[in-house]
Amino acid sequence: MAAQRARALGGLPTLRPADGVRRTVRVAIGDPQAPLERVLASLDHHGLLGDDGRLRPEVFLVSMGDHFDFGPAAQRRTAAADGLAFLSFLADHPADQTVIILGNHDLVRVGELHGFDEATFARAQAQADLAYRGGEVDPALEARFLADWPMVSDAEALARDFSAFAPAQRALVEQLLRAGRAQLAFAASERVVLTHAGLTVHDFTQLGLPAPTTAPEIERALAGFLDGRVSAWRSGPLDLAPLHLAGTAASGVGRGILFQRPAHPSTGEPELFEGPPRRRFDPRWLLPGVTQAIGHIRDAKCRTLLGPWVQGAPAGDGPLRSLTSTGTDVTYRAGVVPGASLVFLDGGMSHSLPERYQLLDLDRLAPAEPLPR
What we know:
By secondary structure, the protein is an alpha/beta fold.
């Protein structure tokens, strides 16, 4: 029933105003890059859906960004429809019941992909698929691809990273931005802030601001920045420089606060640490005094990038994870550690059973317990 409800929305959703209902259950869900049935099953396993397929009135839900692009090439059309349906499902709830955090896969719809229609994207993707096969790049074919489509960074972008695009997704992301329903950060409390990929002190230096010391300060600073850019946006791609830089053939892969990932300096590719804006950041640069709950990065990737700082057995897909930084010492492990600097919510939803996929209780800062039905 819930899936039928989300699919039946069609077109752009109604952006419902706040209804003033008291929300007593506050949770966040990691990157919903998964088939619609899997996403809704994860919510339903936690008792968050009512008989009508909508969120129960007492539930407040934050979605951590990256609502698009998942699955193999054969499922691109289904993935495009499912991502659109779930984002519409979120937007169709009252403004004080759902918070939509923007991820790089959301912003690319009004960034690198802003000029594509269905026909031109199909042509570009066909070229990208030839140039990028099985994780291997054909340099000659990629050069030809980039000559034809310089608004994207490489063939992999359309063959894999942003592979399930549809123009209706761009229309919805733009609608959410102009209505103020899409955010770069959300303060869950004085000391807990939700962002897509994590923020460092250097990100605020770019804006000429001192590093915020509380979660509400972070939310206000990024909301003011985003509101100003959206208000000035008339046509073309949305410009969020210097915090977020889209990837192009000339500049290379995208960089900034929706792309960057924590990494140990010894993991190689030192050019990715250059910036800001960056692709990688040393977690000792994180904003002090706050816990950031983020998406964007799964356990296996964390373990690769954080190397010597990893402790304990792999969490795998599904469970929450934590990184603690004192400014000198860093540790990464499974579970939610009290006082953590980062809590990771991206549990690879496409690869995890709903009963294993953990949501974050925003009040206890712990895995959410299923609600009684």
